[in-house]
Amino acid sequence: MKAMKALNPWKGLPAVLALTAAAGCLAGCVEIEESLTLRHDLSGTAVFTLTVDNDPWMKQAALVKHLSDGKPGDPTPAEIDATRETLAGIRADAGDSAKNEAMFKQHFKDTIPPGVRLLTMTIEQQGTKTVTRAEFAFDDVRMLPMIGMSQEVTDNWPTPDIREQPFCGLEVIDEGKTVLVTHAEADPLERILQDPRQPGIDSNSSPEVRKQTEAALSSARLVFRIESPMEVVDTNAELRRGRSLSWEVKGSDPIAKRERTLTARFKK
User: Fold this and answer.
1) Radius of gyration of the chain (CA)
2) Angle between helices 55-68 and 207-218 (to 10 degrees)
3) How far apart are CA 103 and CA 220, in angstroms?
4) Tell me, what DSSP letter sits at residue 210?
């Protein structure tokens, strides 16, 4: 996990940006997509995509500095642009995406369970968004939640961040004639706030900062998809197209919807 800490692009932040980090807004707007292609023998492929839009926290960092300077109201466009330039400099110091990709590939090699293979791994910067995408092949889908859960990781970093443990909460039960797939960790807010790098909303923050943080968190989104040649027996999927099922959970959804377990049962 020492290599993973080197990935932190916020090291050396000016004091005001460090204050913003303490307010828990480094997550920005987060979108998580988890997709499975599941065969009759429980083998298949999986894709995990994490998109983080840093623009909200850039604006919040500008707001924190604006307020710390004793200025009323919202930061000016010039102040926000200055924050963006600071972030660009921090990213340049942190290294290019190729180095980050190499670090994550090594992380997965060290923590990936037997029967799971990393096919591709990319980290791309798309404007203010950072997109991390990993594709896996598996012999047994029940091993997917074990990615990132090696003994070394659990001993030294009990709560991996979102990227380090994709598919957490996924459970697949072979019932004989049927296969039950459940996902109990589909609440994007919970996934973000469980990340040890995201301390959450600081109760000591100003009302303005809290408002922006809550807005960023409420925009979080998780999409879970399953495609299988097996017949769907029952499911609570929101969208069903042939043998493809999908669910969408938003940070702004009611708690009951965010905390529900996503389920699908297939006939072999």
Assistant:
1) 20
2) 180
3) 26
4) H
Is residue 26 a contact partner of residue 53, using CB atoms and an 8 Å limit?
Answer: no
Q: Edge-to-edge strands of the sheet including 170-174? A: 170-174, 178-183, 262-267, 231-235
Give Cα separations from 170 to 46, 80, 173, 180, 260 (angstroms): 12, 39, 10, 11, 13
Domain layout of the chain by residue ranges: 2-267
Classify residue 28 by burial, with Cβ atoms within 10 Å: 0-12, 13-18, 19+.
buried
Whole-model pTM? 0.72
CA pair distance 57, 204, nearest whole angstrom = 17
Cα 245 to Cα 61, 126, 263: the distances in Å are: 39, 28, 10
Contacts of 101 (CB under 8 A, 6+ apart): 121, 122, 123
Q: What is the pLDDT of residues 116-161, one digit of tens each?
A: 999 988 888 787 788 889 999 999 999 999 887 544 444 444 444 5
Q: What is the pLDDT of residues 43-101, one digit of tens each?
A: 999 999 988 887 766 777 777 777 777 787 777 888 877 777 776 665 555 555 566 66
Which tokens in the block code for residue 111? 């923590």
Cα distance between residue 251 and residue 215, in whole Å = 9
How far is the C-alpha of 105 from the C-alpha of 82, rounded, in Å? 33
